[in-house]
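Input.
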Amino acid sequence: MMYCFAAMALMPVIWVLWGYSLAFGEGNAFIGDFSFFLLNGINMTSPEAGSEIMFVIFQGMFAIITPALITGAFVERFKFSTYLIFITIWVTLVYAPVCHWVWGGGWISQGVFGDQGALDFAGGTVVHPKCRCCALVAAWMVGKKRGGAAGTIVAHNVPYVILGASILWFGWFGFNAGSELAADGIAANAFLTTNTAAAMAALTWLVISGLHTGKMSAVGAATGAVAGLVAITPACGWVDVGGALMIGLSASVVCYLCAIGMEKSGVDDALVVFGVHGIGGAWGALMTGVFASEAIGGVKGLLEGNGTIVLEQLVGIVATFLYSGIATFIILKVLDVIPGLGLQEPENIEMSGLDVNVHGERGYVSDGAD
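Output.
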């Protein structure tokens, strides 16, 4: 929890200082500039200041959640002080440039094979595929939990999992429908398709799990719902409800298979960040190109005869995957060799728990506090 809470404290400061400017400043096709440093020029006297200020804070929420998502891959073993330095560098050199590519007028938004660039309504490329790759790289570089096999973390409170998933499901409407930045038909469609895809994915996961293991678990249903939410994120403002059903169903199948594969691979992605957010986001971005409807968002997809848009989606997926993965590897490698930093806590600290040794407190009174 401290990983995520720290991101909530650190990211807004970075965002108003230089993050927003690097993401949405004019700059060039690859990165913005410092014209909006400390939100210079964005004030209550500038034209449409209120709407731009709202845009700054709305986009800042994406900047907060993206590094927070990565933490699920290395929970309980990444050195906290190094983590703070890592996300500061990461949001500057990875998140902001990719955000600029897709949403800030950068090269992906301009199109590679035509005038229409890749479609990403609410973060399917900017948030999920990018964090998937970074989470996988981080989990691999940090290594497995000491004293246990990969993937041994289980939900200690299933009702809380369902409560959290329910809050997340509801909150996702704000991200997806809110990305229209207006209360109109597109926002309503994004709301509808988001809910539809999540519901379909949850049902599909239950069925697959029941057939595979003989059990229909609550945690599985929650995981399926999140997979559907992730997958519909890039597509929600571009597809109709039929497309949402297909995206939710297919994403659940793909993510379920990936979760099984990750467990067998030995990579300790504790909360299946790569399998759900990563693969789900990439799949959703690709399916956006397949199911995009001209009647909804004004862009034809593959099913309406526009195969080029699928190629644009692939370019966006591959580019963000490669850049994010390589950049994350370099950042973590440098931090790992700097004296006094490193990626993993000493074994005695990790084995006895980061709560007491790093934060000086216990998560639960029942942990055996004196």
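The mean pLDDT is 89.
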